[in-house]
From TrEMBL:
It comes from the Bacteria. Residues 77-109 are annotated as: Disordered. This is J domain-containing protein. InterPro entries: J_dom_sf. The chain crosses the membrane at residues 12-38, 50-71. The keyword Membrane applies. The lineage of its organism: Bacteria, Pseudomonadati, Pseudomonadota, Alphaproteobacteria, Sphingomonadales. Residues 97-107 have a biased composition (Basic residues). Keywords: Membrane, Transmembrane, Transmembrane helix.
Length: 176
């Protein structure tokens, strides 16, 4: 390994270890994980070994693995190559039902909104208040006001006008 890059990483790891000691958490575990990594002794089993040390051990070992990646990048070696997924596991149905080509979309609950939100009035507002609010909003979206604007802005104003008119129609229908 080139000394310059590794020295910077070791300095950074030492600073992190001093910080861990200052706050009194898992410094020995952290130091052991970093020592394994810097000595090129880290293996794919290192995370499992750290898990046996408990949550802090796993966290500090993960930090050590990040340090290993930093050392590799500082030395210009790049990340470790990863093995491809065996074909027997790749794109095989799990046997738990039909396989979908697209992930299922879970409907997101929208807050309760309605025509009153579009018009900016209370849900139980009188019809006159709803119509006044709609007229005020429609003046802001009037085609004459947006005639010289860019096409995208004109389309947005037209869409807003349609939304306001739909909300007004719903307000009138609910007032009956």
């Amino acid at each position: 390994m080139a000394g310059g890059g590794r020295g910077r990483v070791i300095g950074a790891v030492a600073a992190l270890a001093r910080l861990a000691m200052a706050i009194g958490i898992g410094c020995l575990v952290f130091s052991a994980a970093v020592a394994l990594v810097l000595a090129d002794r880290a293996t794919p089993a290192t995370p499992e070994l750290a898990a046996g040390l408990g949550l802090l051990g796993a966290l500090w070992t993960s930090a050590g693995l990040v340090a290993e990646g930093l050392v590799r990048l500082a030395d210009g070696r790049g990340p470790k190559p990863t093995a491809p997924v065996p074909p027997s596991w790749h794109n095989q149905p799990s046997g738990r039902g039909p396989r979908h080509s697209r992930p299922r979309r879970v409907p997101v609950r929208q807050p309760q909104t309605g025509w009153w939100t579009v018009l900016g009035v209370a849900a139980d507002a009188p019809r006159a208040t709803c119509e006044s609010a709609a007229r005020s909003l429609l003046r802001q979206c009037h085609p004459d006001r947006w005639a010289t604007a860019e096409p995208v802005l004109r389309q947005q104003a037209e869409g807003r006008t349609r939304t306001i008119l739909q909300a007004l129609a719903e307000a009138r229908a609910s007032a009956r």
